[in-house]
Structures are given as structure tokens and as C-alpha cells.
Amino acid sequence: MQKLYVKDKQFYKNAFGIALPIAFQGLITTGVNMADNVMVAEVGQTQFAAVSAANQFIGIFHIFCMGIGMGASVLVSRYFGMKDKDSLKKTVAIMLRLCLAMSLLFCVITILIPEQIMRIYTEEDGIIHEGMKYLEYSVITYFLMGLSLTTTIVLRNVKQVRLPLYTSIAALFVNVGANYMFIFGEFGAPRMEVAGAALGTLIARFFEFSIICGYLLFKDKEIGFRIRHIFAPVGVLWREYIRISIPVLISDGILALGNNSVAMVIGRLGESFMAANTVTVTTQQLSSVMTQGFAQSGAIVTGYTLGEGDREKAQKQGYAFLGIGLLFGVLAGLIILLISNPMISAYSKLTEETREIAKQLMLSISIIVVFQATNSIMTKGVLRGGGDTKMLMLADNVFLWVISLPLGLLAGFVWHLQPFWIYFFLKSDQVVKAFWCLIRLNSGKWIKKIKSANELEEVIE
Fold first, then answer.
1. Alpha carbons 187 and 180: distance in angstroms, whole number
2. How many alpha carbons fall within 13 Å on the CB side of residue 133?
């Protein structure tokens, strides 16, 4: 096996240059989510659990959009490295069409069956009633969030990382301010509680959408994409998009359903377990922002290198990203141990039972995150950037559905283990997948050839 670092200052400069703004943006987003949670928790634990459950469903949409965006990013980074603007524009057009279709689907589902959505996650009527209020405002939010999220991913792949970061900073103040106004009825606004949290999020999403999508459609010159290109002919590039990007969408989509199955298990362990899990998820996100930044950096840098035709260099960089994953995984675990008690204390209205469960979950996550950081940078970064999307689709879901979910169900409902072990088994796929990533990286089979639009047309002719 090769060394887990490379003697290339430019590599680390590029990797950190892309990862840090993305990580900082993730930190801001997580901070906003935490502020929202703390404010809603002040209203009551039932409302807190309701928002958490509703966001589990919205999280499915978020992951689908991430799949659409990250699937497109495999092609975008490669075409950007090849300096092929025509293929770039066509890839973005396909991505936006898929995003609009996905937004419409979730919009219709939320309008038609909001109560059934909430019953997926809990059987408690109070939580269902409050959660339905939150979902009402998600109908428009789907379109705003989906388009801004996928556009942000594309902009990052063409080295436009500052605008999304600055927009997130501004959106932080918009979201927190609007939530404070409408949750508690301050500054003359009505007291809306759960509905106020949803409205604040909607306002922030509109603000974010206006800047991010406005920049892509009217100002960006790296891609040169404009409104007229959304429904312009894309020719045979559809075939390459489906071959490379659709497995990412399917993988992330099925993974989202799997993660929601985990949420369903947690929801049936009681309100206290649900609330405790929400606290720990926020903490895990805070400690893992660097990992998420380097995951996207891994995909982008790998795409650039392979776009330039240097397979050997990409392989060496893959090991370097593996080393980065191990480093930040250990750091994330230590951070969780250090901040767990202050984080739990921030939620003053939680019951003592909820606090005790949260402490056990924090300890479990501090171990899991070491493996999760490693495989995230590999699966969502390097291996995906190499075009190995079909194998990743298979691996992601086999480990989740065959290992972690069955073990989690047994731990919670048959063996009746402590919360620490229930959560550990529910996330055990992260451990197994970390070792699989090392084997896959070492094989070199993860590097796939990607054709441009012109190459595809030449083959057909």
C-alpha cells in the first residue's frame, strides 16, 4: 500500500482551498440548524420532536438533491479539467431538469399525505399534529432548496467556492432572525411556534436561491450557463449522464430511505430517544464539517486530475485523501467527547431521561465518526470522482440494508440493549465500509473513463 500523504504542496493547497470554504459553509448551516432546534426546544419537547421528525422527510429530499448534484459534479469536474464548456452546459441542464422534477414530486406528496408522512416516524398524535404544521411550508421550500443546493455543488466544481460561502453567512442571519420573530412572536410578528420555524426557513431559502441561482443564470462565466440552456437539446450526453450520475442518485436515494428507516426505528423507541438523537445529530454535524468539505474536495480534485489524463497521480492523491480522512475522523471523535456535555446542556427543556440517552449516543458517535469520516471522503469524494459510481451504489446499500439495519432492529427490539449499542449497531455499516474503501482504492479499479459530448456523438456517427 502507498503512503497516506504526498510530497506535493500544490495538492494540499488545492485540496484545502476547496475544502475549507465548503466546511465553513457547512459549519454555518449546522449552526443555523442548531439555533433553530434550540429555539423550538424552548417551546416544548413535543414541538422539538415534531420538527425533527418532519425534517427527516425533508432530509430524504435533501439527499436526493445531493445525489443529483454530486452525480453531476463527477461529470462537471472532469469536463472542467478537459476545458469542455459545451459538455459542461449540457450536464448542468440535465441536472436542473432532474432537480425540478424531484422538487415537484416531493411537493405533490407533501400536499396530498402530510399526516401519513409524519406517521412514518412516530405514532404519537401530538408530534404528528405539530409536524404537519411544519410540512405545510415545505411545499415551496423544496424548489428553492433543491435548485440552490445543486447549483452550489456545480459552482464549487468550477472553483466558485466563495459566493456560496458568503451567501450562507448572510442566510444565517436571515434564518435566525426570522425564526426568532415568528417562533416567539417578537417585533410585532405573530407567535407561530413550529410554523414560525418553518416560515423562517422558507424565507432564508428564498434569499439563498435568489443569490446562488441568480449568479449562475446571469453572471457566471466559467460555465456560461443561462436560462435558455435549461431546456436546450443535450444530445447523446444523456447516455453518459445516466451511466455515471444516475447511480449516484439511486445510491443516495436508497441510502436516504435506509437512513429514514433508521429514523423510523429511533422514532419507535420513544419521544426521549427521538429528542436525544436530534441533539446528537447536530453535534455530529458540527464535528464533521471538515470531513464533508474534504469529501467534496476529493471528488473535485480527482476529477480535475483525471480530466488532465494523469491516472497515477490520481491514485497517489487518493491515498493522501484517505490519510486526511483518518486524521479528521479522530479529531471529530475527540471534539464530540469535549463538547457533548455543553451541547446537551444547551437544551434546557429536555427531560433527565433524554439527557442520559443523549450522553450515551454521544459516546457511540465519537467512535463511529472515525470510520465515517474515512469512508465519506472515499465514497463521496475520491472514488466517486473517479467515476466508480455503480460499485459505490452497490456497496453503500448492501452494507446499510444487510448489516446495520438488521443489527439495529435486533439491538433495539429483541436484545433491548442500552442506547449506546443500539446506535452503534444502527451505524455499523460505517465501520465495515471504511475497510471496503481501502480495498477498493488499492485495486485501482475505481478509475473509470468518462466521454465528452463530442466523443459520444463521434461514436454514434
1. 9
2. 21
* Cα–Cα nearest to 314, from 153, 444, 438: 444
Q: State how far the Cα of 338 lies from the Cα of 316, in Å rounded to an integer.
A: 34
**Residue pair 13/157 in contact by the 8 Å Cβ criterion:** no
- Which residue has better confidence, 224 or 32? 224
Q: How far apart are CA 118 and CA 130, in angstroms?
A: 9
**Per 3-state DSSP, what percentage of the chain is helix, strand, and coil (rounded to 5)?**
85, 0, 15
Residue 43 to residue 103: CA distance in whole angstroms: 30
Q: What count of residues does the chain have? A: 461
Residue 162's SS3 state is helix
Which pTM value belongs to this model? 0.71
Are the beta carbons of 293 and 26 closer than 8 angstroms?
yes
- List, in sequence order, every beta strand (DSSP E) within 171-295: none
**Tens digits of per-residue pLDDT, 340-379?**
888 888 777 778 888 888 888 889 889 998 998 998 899 8
CA 393 vs CA 64, 101, 241, 323: distances in Å: 13, 22, 15, 23
Provide DSSP, 279-333: HHHHHHHHHTHHHHHHHHHHHHHHHHHHHTT-HHHHHHHHHHHHHHHHHHHHHHH
Question: What sign does the CA torsion over 329, 300, 382, 240 have?
Answer: positive
CA distance linking residue 156 with residue 153, whole number of Å: 5
Calculate the dihedral angle through the C-alpha atoms of 352, 358, 364, 368, rounding to the nearest 10 degrees. 180
CB within 8 A of 305, min separation 6: which ones? 81, 313, 314, 317
Residue 355 CA to residue 62 CA, distance in Å, equals 28
pLDDT per position as a tens digit, 110-144: 999 989 988 887 778 888 888 888 898 888 989 99
Low-confidence winner among 206-215, 275-284, 365-374, 414-423 (lowest mean pLDDT): 275-284
Helix axes 271-287, 289-307, angle to 10 degrees: 50
Assigned C-alpha cell, 170: 448572510
Delimit the domains of the chain by residue range.
9-453
**Could you identify the residue written with the cell 488545492?**
14
d(CA 66, CA 72): 10
Rounded-to-integer distance, Cα 122 and Cα 127, Å:
7
HSE, CB side, 13 Å, CA atoms: give it for residue 259. 21
Chain-centroid distance of CA 382 in Å reads 16
Instruction: Judge whether 293 and 20 are in contact, CB under 8 Å.
Output: yes
